[in-house]
């Protein structure tokens, strides 16, 4: 009943060893740890190969492909009955694997995933980022229930942080679990696909200590929006009968486009969002009154400073309303 733990890393030498140690010191020891070096320019190999533990394996990708591609590479080398993921800057709490295996032992066979929570440093519960902030994520009041439409719930919010979860290897029908073209939100995209094939049990007890740094993907709003556009594209059928969820996604894209100065494209997405769910007009109106006020305030303070063009051609290529609506 070996567990294959996949840990992708890219130039995270300063935190990698601690992340590895939090895995190999787990009370459940029948595991293999596959460290996937995603084309790092740092000498990651010497860190990994310097660990005197035969359970640790080093896999080198010659070219950086992002976390999704690295995790897919790890899955190709996995031999365990269960799959777990670790990040190179997070720490598993002691007993994570044993606790989640014990939960599996009480569950019916149709449950393919057990997921817990994390204590997250660098962000608070209101999504304010910065040092000294701490959040409990995801919030326990939004817990997935076994008797609900889990796919619909996950289209509204992602409840599966990969480091927090333990998966039956058989829970997903293909070896490649992740969209390697997405550089952010690929875990959310996977969670949505996963709910089409298996049932997820969410436990609210924390099993991970997570840390947000300046280079964390969660800090890159542009990459997140590209990932969201891919989710919209890949889930047209599911969203066609869940128009409230689709409306929320379209509003999120429209809000981002508005913030980066692409007002015409923003209005296209916002109009589509209102067609899907007209009652969102109140929420949208209040959000944009705040954004316009903030924009005008910044304009007065920084009138002489040119705004950077952060709206990339890559997102332009994705942001075509006919592909998602």
Average pLDDT score: 87
Q: Report the portion of residues in β strands.
A: 15-25%
* Distance N to C terminus: 44 Å
Largest sheet: 9 strands, mixed
Per DSSP, the total helix count is 12
How large is the radius of gyration? 21 Å
Helix/strand order: EHEHEHEEHEEHEHEHHHHHH
SSE class: alpha/beta
User: How many β-strand stretches?
Assistant: 9
Task: Indicate the overall shape.
Answer: globular
Helical coverage, percent range: 40-55%
Low-pLDDT segments, ≥5 res: 292-325
How does this structure look, described?
The chain has 325 residues and is an alpha/beta fold. The chain has twelve helices and nine strands. It has helices at residues 13-24, 44-49, 67-76, 96-105, 150-156, 186-194, 221-234, 236-240, 243-259, 263-276, 281-301, 313-318; strands at 3-9, 31-38, 56-61, 82-85, 91-92, 111-123, 129-137, 165-168, 199-211. Strands 1, 2, 3, 4, 5, 6, 7, 8 and 9 form a nine-stranded mixed sheet that branches. Strand 1 (3-9), helix 1 (13-24) and strand 2 (31-38) form a beta-alpha-beta unit. The chain starts with a strand and ends in a 7-residue tail after the last helix.
Condensed summary:
The protein has helices at residues 13-24, 44-49, 67-76, 96-105, 150-156, 186-194, 221-234, 236-240, 243-259, 263-276, 281-301, 313-318; strands spanning 3-9, 31-38, 56-61, 82-85, 91-92, 111-123, 129-137, 165-168, 199-211. With 325 residues, it is an alpha/beta fold.
């Amino acid at each position: 009943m070996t567990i294959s733990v996949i840990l992708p890393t890219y130039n995270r030498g300063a935190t990698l060893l601690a992340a590895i140690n939090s895995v190999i010191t787990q009370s459940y020891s029948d595991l293999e740890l596959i460290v996937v070096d995603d084309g790092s320019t740092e000498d990651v190999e010497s860190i990994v190969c310097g660990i005197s533990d035969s359970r640790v394996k080093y896999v080198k990708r010659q070219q950086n492909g992002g976390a999704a591609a690295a995790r897919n590479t790890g899955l190709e080398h996995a031999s365990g009955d269960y799959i777990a993921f670790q990040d190179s800057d997070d720490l598993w709490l002691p007993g994570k694997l044993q606790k989640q295996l014990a939960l599996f032992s009480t569950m019916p066979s149709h449950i393919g995933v057990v997921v817990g929570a994390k204590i997250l440093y660098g962000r608070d519960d209101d999504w304010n980022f910065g040092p000294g902030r701490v959040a409990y994520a995801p919030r326990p009041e939004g817990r997935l229930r076994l008797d609900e439409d889990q796919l619909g719930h996950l289209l509204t919010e992602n409840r599966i942080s990969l480091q927090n979860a333990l998966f039956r290897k058989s829970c997903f029908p293909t070896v490649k679990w992740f969209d390697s073209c997405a550089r952010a939100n690929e875990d959310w995209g996977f969670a949505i696909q996963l709910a089409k094939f298996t049932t997820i049990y969410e436990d609210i007890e924390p099993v991970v200590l997570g840390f947000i740094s300046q280079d964390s993907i969660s800090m890159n709003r542009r990459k997140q929006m590209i990932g969201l556009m891919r989710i919209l594209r890949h889930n047209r059928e599911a969203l066609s009968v869940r128009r409230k969820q689709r409306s929320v996604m379209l509003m999120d894209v429209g809000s981002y486009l508005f913030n980066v100065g692409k007002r015409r494209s923003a209005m296209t997405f916002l109009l589509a969002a209102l067609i899907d769910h007209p009652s969102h007009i109140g929420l949208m109106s209040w959000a944009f009154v705040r954004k316009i006020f903030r924009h005008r305030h910044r304009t007065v303070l920084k009138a002489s400073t040119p705004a950077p063009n952060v709206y990339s051609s890559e997102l332009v290529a994705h942001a075509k309303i006919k592909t998602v609506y």
